[in-house]
Amino acid sequence: xxxxxxxxxxxxxxxxxxxxxxxxxxxxxxxxxxxxxxxxxxxxxxxxxxxxxxxxxxxxxxxxxxxxxxxxxxxxxxxxxxxxxxxxxxxxxxxxxxxxxxxxxxxxxxxxxxxxxxxxxxxxxxxxxxxxxxxxxxxxxxxxxxxxxxxxxxxxxxxxxxxxxxxxxxxxxxxxxxxxxxxxxxxxxxxxxxxxxxxxxxxxxxxxxxxxxxxxxxxxxxxxxxxxxxxxxxxxxxxxxxxxxxxxxxxxxxxxxxxxxxxxxxxxxxxxxxxxxxxxxxxxxxxxxxxxxxxxxxxxxxxxxxxxxxxxxxxxxxxxxxxxxxxxxxxxxxxxxxxxxxxxxxxxxxxxxxxxxxxxxxxxxxxxxxxxxxxxxxxxxxxxxxxxxxxxxxxxxxxxxxxxxxxxxxxxxxxxxxxxxxxxxxxxxxxxxxxxxxxxxxxxxxxxxxxxxxxxxxxxxxxxxxxxxxxxxxxxxxxxx
Length: 481
Known about the structure:
Layout: E1 8-12, H1 20-29, E2 33-37, H2 43-60, E3 65-69, E4 84-87, E5 92-96, E6 106-108, H3 112-117, E7 123-126, E8 131-138, E9 142-149, E10 151-154, E11 159-160, H4 173-185, E12 189-192, H5 198-208, E13 213-218, H6 221-225, H7 227-233, E14 236-240, H8 241-247, H9 253-267, E15 271-274, H10 289-300, E16 305-308, H11 310-313, H12 318-334, H13 338-342, H14 353-367, E17 372-376, H15 381-388, E18 395-399, H16 402-407, E19 414-418, H17 425-438, E20 447-453, E21 462-469
Parallel strand pairs: 1-2, 1-16, 2-3, 3-12, 5-6, 12-13, 13-14, 14-15, 15-16, 17-18, 17-20, 18-19
Antiparallel strand pairs: 4-10, 5-9, 7-8, 7-11, 8-9, 20-21
């Protein structure tokens, strides 16, 4: 089940893709990681989806990642009299603590934190930014705003405050219950919504511990402000372009996507580009040309993974969407300019032995004609550092830890294989050659590069690189040539 591309594909599960047969077909078509969206999934649904993925994993004998996406805080206005009202441009509108139905002049806002944190001059965006207001004054019980862009406002529509740093945790009581359940199921990644600053990650780390890797969804202007610290604190990053494009000028999103991708790559943290990548394929068997270009841009930027949401969860053509994304990625990576474009982002090694080994592996691979880079890794850190270099070779992560193989399913160019630790250095090289041959990455007389930590089985101690060449039977014949 090796892929013919290095970028990974994440697919959201839902009514269109939750049946075992369809999920297996999606995996065969190219999905590397399945996403469970807790905004829509009950615990029972999550349990069934988790079991279906794990059954597919057993069937295909490949580690498959599961990403559990927490809902995070949601802010909505109260009920509107008659269900909806037209709010006029340039009018004055009020948000208050009065629970009576709203009108064209006012509405109930059931979130005291907003009254506490918002300031005059701050923006208010309603219904995904369709209505825009500017705060004129506020008190503990009333916010007065000037309507910049009016329109129809209906009951229970969402409200966003892009300029306001809210004094709340990104993990609600619902999220805590969902998180506890997801960790007991054994998911591999937890995606955090509504991340505002690095301190939010530290709170999540206290709750999650080592139970799963943490992925921060970058969707708030405040997160952009604290981006470097957030990236340093997390295990992975998601460019959540939907909410980011609501809370910030939409024309800034492409540049921010590149900035987030570049900084995540430099830090060696997996980065996922998400939202509306093939949106038209929710109802169409083919995408628009613009969507194809959008997916291609993320691949050219060197993102670790590209993600489908409604296309695979509720769309009419989930399988076609996966196949299309797979074909686009393969075509981009075959482009003569691909390697040059990917490596325009320089990833200077950090002053660590692991980074030095990873950089050396990349340099050797560029100098000697080899078939693959083999990483022995218990925690995944060795494979992550090698993948950070975006080498021109496949990266095979050999690990005795199933959870590590699943976690690496989202990492660029990395093909995970479960295997026991070798007995000694000679066995390490023999096993690497055999697996490279069996998995279809090398053939007789090819060369491979092996990285590991010595003594073997010591997590985080990457300190060795070795060359090996395969004889006609796939056994090593010349080490260190």
